[in-house]
Amino acid sequence: MYNLSSHFLPIEDDLLAENWQSSQIGHCIAKHTSTVFPEITNAKIAFFSVAEFEGTENKCSDFSAIRKEFYKLHFADLPPLVDLGSLQLMPTKKESFKQIEKVCATLLENGIIPMLIGGGQDISYAIYKAYASIGKIITFTSVDNAFDLGTEEDKIHSHSYLSKMIAFQPNHLFNYCNIGYQSYFESPAAIEMLDKINFDTFRLGHVKANLFEVEPLMRNTDFLSFDLSAIASAYAPANVHAGPNGFDGAESCSIMRYAGLSDKITACGIFEYHRELDIGNQTAKLMAQMFWYFLDGFKQRKNELNPNLNECTKYTVSFDDGVNEVVFYKSNKTGRWWIGVPFSTTEKEKKDNYFVACSYRDYEQSNQGEPPERWIKTYQKLN
Q: Which of 81, 249, 250, 301 is the most buried (most CB within 10 A)?
C-alpha cells in the first residue's frame, strides 16, 4: 500500500492525555501521534480532517473540538477505525486537491472508507476525482440546502463545485442526488435543468415528511457529502450560511445512519464547519454524534449491495398497455426492495437488469399504474 504517513499531521497532544474509558471511541481508535502512525492494513474506516477552506466562507483550521466530542462517545465493538490526523496541505489549492485525490484513491483501492471533516465542500470534487482515477463510476449524493452549481466562469468553490463535477471528462458521474434543498435558494431553471438530465433532487419539506425514503437513496449512493448548511442553525450554528430552516439534529443523525447501513457507500464527509461561530460546541457535538450514527449503521451492514435473487420474492407489475412492466425484488432476509431496470450493452445481447434500490412506496405507486420516477430516470440513462 502507498505510504500515507507523510501526508498527515498527528492529532493534538491534549487528546492523547485524556484518560478515556475502555468503551469510549478515544480509547479504542488507532491514532496518529507524534511517534506512531496507525497501521491501516486491516482498517475499514479512516477518519481525518482537511483544513482546506480557500473556496468557502467557513474558515477553520482547528477541528480538535469535533475530535474531542467524537472521542468522548461510547461505542460497543467499534469497527476497525483509524484516525489519520489532519491532512497536510500543499502551497496551492490545486496541489492540495491533488493530495486529497491521491490519499482518497489509495484508501478506496484498499477497501477503506474515507470519513472526512472539512473544510470547504468543494473538497468533494477532489474526492470525486479520486473515484475517477481508479475508474469508478459513481452516484454522488449531497445533503445541502442548495445545489452548488455556480456558473461555467466560476473557479472551483463550495458554491460551484457541482458544475465542475458534471463537466469533468471522462465522465464518471452516473447520478447526482440532492437531499434537502430549499426552493428559495435555487432558480426554477436550475431545478428544471437537473431534472432534464435525470438527476434527483428532493426538497427539504418532502424529505422531513418522508425521512424513511432516504434509506433507498443511500443504498444507491457511493459518496455522501453533508454540508452543515442543510441543518437548521438552532442545531448547528457553526456555519456562515446556517439559517432558521433545515434538518434537526435527530434527522441529521438518521440520514448518517442510513448512510452507514448502505453497502454501497465507500466515502463520506461533513463539510463547512466554522469553529468561531459555534455556541458551546453544539455543532461539534452534533457532528460527532452524526459520525457515531454512521458507524452504528456500518456495524449493521448486511452485505446486500444487490439483491440475492435466490433469497428474494419477485413481484412483476404490468401496465395497461400490455407491453411495459416493472419487476420488483424484496429481500426475504432484510425486507429491502429493489427495481430491476433492463438494459443491454450491445444490440445483439439480451437484456440484463441494473438493480436500483427502492421502497415499498415505489411498488404501491406502480400498482396504481404509474412507473416510479427512479425507474424511468435510470432506464433513460442506461438506454
A: 81
